[in-house]
Amino acid sequence: MFFCPTRIVFGNNAVQRAAGFIPALGNKALIVTGKKSAQLCGALSDITNMLSSLGIAYATFAEVKENPELQCIMQGKDMLLDTASDFVIGIGGGSPIDAAKAISLAAANSLNISQLYQTELFRDAYPIIAVPTTAGTGTEATQYSVLSDPGTNKKAGFGHPKAFPTLSILDPRYTYSLPQSVTLHTALDALSHLLEGIYSNQRSQVVKPFIHKGISNIIKHLPLVLQQPDNPSSRNELMLASLYGGMVIAQGSTTLQHSIGYPLTATFGVPHGLANALVMQEIMLLYLPAVKAELEELFDAIHLSMDEFFMWLHKLPYNSTIEYDDKFIEASIPQIMNSRNMALNPVTVTEADVYRILDSIRSKK
Ligand code: NAP
Ligand code: FE
Question: Is the pTM of this model over 0.85?
């Protein structure tokens, strides 16, 4: 099975090539961004110049922080309704784009803050345009939005077909300005998504070529981009890998590989992609008995052994441990076990497995 109802325009100057699809969406846009990066990378001015040239008015909501909170979605919803906007444009990393999706759904379905995860209430959406400026989440090609609730200290996603963007505009040049750490963490998020296309018990063989090509792109081009941040062909290949990762998890969703990282992000602010990377080896070994043939096929296709893959991973410049106590692990286990991704694991995962993995990545005093 394969479903991705998003028009995707990819490549340098993608905004110009996408312009013809915008007037059909309405006369006024709400642009949703973070504080600085949409401006810094040039995407915001490309979009606003294009809107002006088409005679489309816009308002800007530049309030989205990393790991967007429910309250921020409510503010964006109010702004969409107050400005009588017809569609939403999320520009940024996964945080502003996920916020744009949730704002669209909250406004179209009159949701209050406690209803943002109640997908059974989602009947309508304002059209969503996604303009990614990181190469990692793949949210430009998914039906997911991941939000954080500071009240419960919980980070969780929802998925609904209405949350697929109508149009996604991907220009790899927007990623040249990424700091090295964000380049690294986001690429590791994309790598997790691609691997989860192999792990998920809803895996789709239709996307296998995307998985193999995306993983091989990251293995080859991530180390190059860390050396040379504005290398055009490597940035291009990483953004393609991220898009492929989104198209992959849109079919089979994510697994424990993702949900185990959410408490690390919610409690310690560990960047999302880094949280995924920290557990990547342990998760692969946990799932191995159920997906041995699929992993062998992957490693054949990318001309690496599993050990060489782990060596590549451990050579990347990130700290592979975090400091926390047993209390944190015990508090996280129920949240992880109850997350919706747990239904997709290819093996039965026990509380003891989750404990062992979280224990393996904490720094021992
Ligand atoms: P992000 O949280 O959107 O942004 C991280 C940081 O990078 C921010 O400080 C941002 O600055 C900066 N930044 C973004 N683009 C930049 C650029 N081109 N140049 C310089 N700085 C830039 O990061 P992300 O990793 O892309 O998104 C993570 C979120 O997406 C998490 O909440 C994660 O759970 C979610 N996610 C969603 C899906 C999905 O399918 N929906 C899948 C995986 C992950 P500003 O704040 O100034 O913008
Ligand atoms: Fe992710």
Answer: yes
